[in-house]
Amino acid sequence: MGTEGWCLLLCLALSGAADPVPAAERQWRAVDVVLDCFLVEEGMHRGGFASDKTMVKALLVLKQVPVLDDGSLEGFSDFQVSTLVQDNPPVTFEASVSPVQIPHAEALLHADCSEKEVTCEISRYFLQARQEVAVETAAWFMANLQVSGGGPSVSILMKTLVDAENTALSYPVMNLPLGPQGTVLTTVEFQVSTQTPSLSLQRGSSASLHCGFSMAPGWDLARVEWRLQHKGSGQLVYSWTAGQGHARREGATLEPEQLLLAGDASLKLPSLTLKDEGAYICQVTTSLYQAQQIIQLHVQASPKVRLGLASEALPPTLICNIAGYYPPDVTVTWTREELGGAPVPVSDTSFSSLRQSPEGTYSISSSLTAEPGSAGATYTCQVAHISLDEPIVTSAWAAPPEQRTVAFGVLFGSSLFLLVLLYLGLQRWQATSSKICQDSEALWVDALLPPNKKKE
């Protein structure tokens, strides 16, 4: 019996738990977490990178992992080697987790019951050449675990010691030492994890890229490095070495206290721009080991939509402008609705070329020739984008030709009436001004005449 049997027992236990224990009253319980895996038989695994080689079925048993019990684990049994199938059994790794904290254990344990999958790949891990370790007495393995649906990701480094006196079997291809029960006995020495392997955030917001780690006693933290990979190019974002942090991206921060006390190497980025998008690599290095996690950061910008009349000619042309959005994929749909009728999709539309601003956002326009009919019609432009919770909807009324003609006639008549009033007012003002000027001239002439010549 592999993981299917344990998952079945666990799911039955969960379904039978009628009265879950409140979160405040839950108790820690140590259980075996059993995961179906694949073992990479050939190639190297250095610093968390796996080779694409031949894989065989394997089983990873994380022994006695502490999880919070909500009352559903009462009948859950621990792993037994005797329950494995006898014909072509998987390579089984039993890993003691006591030296290192295993994060997200509940997500790993309940994955199948939550209709999710755990991808597990185990491969050999080779120490860096500069490390002087008696490699002939030990073997190292890296297990990369990923919960589907955007769940947590954990990289676990395991070590096994070769005991020539107690080893009765060995795995033929990789010459692995097997314990008395035919399993590879290991102990977890180091782990690096993230609870958010993928993030989608709005431009201008702040991001917190989670990266945690835990290591066995005796090892020291040597370096933490964050790098950004995007469109084939890479750059250093933040580095921490020997107690000193250096930010290459403006505003990037990492809390040294949390780093040293809680194993939290999370990176904070304020005021996101489109240039911040990409794959962030959190690489943690100890005095002996190195592992990493990759967090995909997607930066989004929501579109601004404006619907207007592009042409006054008959028939009218409507244009829907969509501007300032990212990423470039956008869906635009048109509908036409007559008075008292139902909306009808409109397919006879055209699009402008896609335009990109210096900031990296995109703009596009969609237009159509309106056919309002005898009673007029409402045209609606609906825009859907990944950054929007709901599509943006904007509408415009297209009047029938008769109303447009009447409206034009009314507008022309009104304009003509105003012009006539303006002309008459101007004529009256000119007449008044002329009379005033004549009177003023007469008074001026009269003032210049001798007293005997003045008019009585």
From TrEMBL:
Subcellular location: Cell membrane; Endoplasmic reticulum membrane; Golgi apparatus membrane; Microsome membrane
Transmembrane segments: 406-426
Main location (coarse class): membrane
Domain Ig-like: start-end pairs: 180-296, 303-394
GO BP annotations, alphabetical order: immune system process
Lineage: Eukaryota, Metazoa, Chordata, Craniata, Vertebrata
Superkingdom per UniProt: Eukaryota
Keywords from the named record: Cell membrane, Disulfide bond, Endoplasmic reticulum, Golgi apparatus, Immunity, Immunoglobulin domain, Membrane, Microsome, Repeat, Signal, Transmembrane, Transmembrane helix
Subunit structure: Interacts with peptide-free HLA-A*02-B2M complexes or those loaded with low affinity peptides, likely facilitating peptide exchange onto higher affinity peptides. Interacts with MR1 in a ligand-independent way; this interaction may stabilize MR1 pool and facilitate ligand loading and dissociation.
Protein name per its UniProtKB record: Tapasin-related protein
Residues in the signal sequence: 1-18
GO cellular component, as recorded: endoplasmic reticulum membrane; Golgi membrane; plasma membrane
Membrane topology: Single-pass type I membrane protein
